[in-house]
Amino acid sequence: MNDWRYRAAETERKVARFATVLVLSLVLVFVFAACARCETPSADEVIIEMALGCGCPADVVSAWLAMERAAGVPSFMTGALAATACRESRCTSDALGDWRVDLEGLNVAKAVGWFQLWPWAERAGADRRDPISAAAVYLGQIVKSKRGLRRRCGKVRRPWVVAWIRVNRGPVWRKTKRTGQQRCSGALPGGLRKLKAWMKAARQRWPGLPLVGRYGVEWGGSERLPSPPH
Predict the structure, then answer these.
(1) Rounded CA gap, 117 and 110, in Å?
(2) Looking at 36-45, 54-63, 179-188, 199-208, which range is the least confident one?
(3) Model-wide pTM > 0.85
């Protein structure tokens, strides 16, 4: 009889201990989740943080992000302007590239400024050394390319990506076997590859970050990213 009472009392103590541990664990989980949510940056803040490591000013990157959303750039390409400027010039206005010999035998840099734009950008009204002016004309050309994409290429899977490729590499192929054909596919431009690398780094820091296809992350500017593990 006494043995039965002892076993019953021991069982009650075990149940009480288990319930206490369970309650404390749930409380700690909720506390940590709340704290992590307060500390977790937004999507824009992640892009700005990545770009700062490349030397891009935070206010300029913020302006680029606003321009992308105003133009309707899909969320998986958010930050593409910043990634392009990072890769092409390390976010400097004096960067020069794509050197050519002109008719007078002098070396001339075709690509100038933040996005390494060629002279066509100045004819379109851009100051290639100004980050906002250059970005506005560059992005405007991509938007224009996308608008005419259906007529020239039919239905494509990633219209914004193809439009970016056509602006970067020209709307028609220059390869011997395809000269004059519309360029409706191709490898990712360097800026989008850089953005993809940023997203990979962000996913390592925030493992729950959702990926979309091969090109990046589906997120919005005010959306909070998943909390880091504790």
Answers:
(1) 8
(2) 36-45
(3) no
Q: How many domains does the chain have?
A: 1
> Secondary structure of 155-170 in the HEC alphabet?
CCCCHHHHHHHHHHHC
Structure tokens at 125: 């009204």
8 A C-beta contact, residue 141 and residue 124: yes
Residue 134 lies in a domain: yes
Structural domain includes residue 141: yes
The Cα 216–Cα 78 span in angstroms is 9
Judged against a pLDDT cut of 80, whether residue 108 lies above it is answered with yes
HEC states along 123-155?
HCCCCCCCHHHHHHHHHHHHHHHHHCHHHHHCC
Q: In which band, very low, low, confident or very high, does the pLDDT at 51 lie, cut at 50, 70 and 90?
A: very high
- Say if 143 falls within a structural domain: yes
- Residue 35 in any domain: the answer is no
Question: What are residue 96's DSSP bridge partners?
Answer: 112
* Distance between CA atoms of residues 164 and 167, nearest Å: 5
Length of the chain: 230
Which residues span the domain enclosing 111? Answer: 40-217
Residue 107 belongs to a domain with what CATH number?
A: 1.10.530
Upper half-sphere CA count for residue 98 (Cβ side, 13 Å):
12
Nearest to 67 by CA among 129, 143, 130: 143
Other CB atoms within 10 A of residue 57 CB: 13
Q: Is the pLDDT of residue 195 over 90?
A: yes
| 77 and 68 Cβ atoms separated by less than 8 Å | yes
Average pLDDT over residues 160-183: 89
